[in-house]
Specification:
The chain has 4 helices and no strands. By secondary structure, the protein is mainly α. The chain folds into 2 domains: 1-53, Winged helix-like DNA-binding domain superfamily/Winged helix DNA-binding domain (Arc Repressor Mutant, subunit A, Orthogonal Bundle); 57-94. α1 packs across α3. Pfam families: HTH_Tnp_1. GO terms for molecular function: DNA binding; transposase activity. This is Transposase.
Length: 94
């Protein structure tokens, strides 16, 4: 659910970009833009969280599921082969 803001989305994106590209303090930039510094700080934090969040790609998700299934099958096969090798090693010692 998105709250309406008195600041347009493009203005918020530009303000965040200005904070990230400037060496000036956030408070100074907020003052120059006429925005509360805590509001600007929240925009910056939200942008950082969104940038750090992984992008869900259905193709990647499907591939991961397929590979996990394949790994599980290969682990079962390996377990069976290890048991068979142990069995035949015992048979050879007799």
């Amino acid at each position: 659910m998105s709250r309406s803001s008195k600041y347009p989305e493009q203005f918020r994106r530009d303000a965040v970009e200005l904070v990230e590209s400037s060496d000036r303090p956030l408070r100074q930039i907020a003052r120059e833009l006429g925005v509360n510094h805590e509001t600007l700080r929240s925009w910056v934090n939200k942008a950082k969280e969104e940038a750090a969040a992984p992008v869900e790609d259905p193709a990647v998700t499907d591939e991961v599921q397929r590979l996990r299934k394949q790994v599980a099958e290969l682990q079962k096969e390996k377990e069976i082969l290890c048991k068979a090798a142990a069995y035949f090693a015992k048979e050879m010692d007799r």
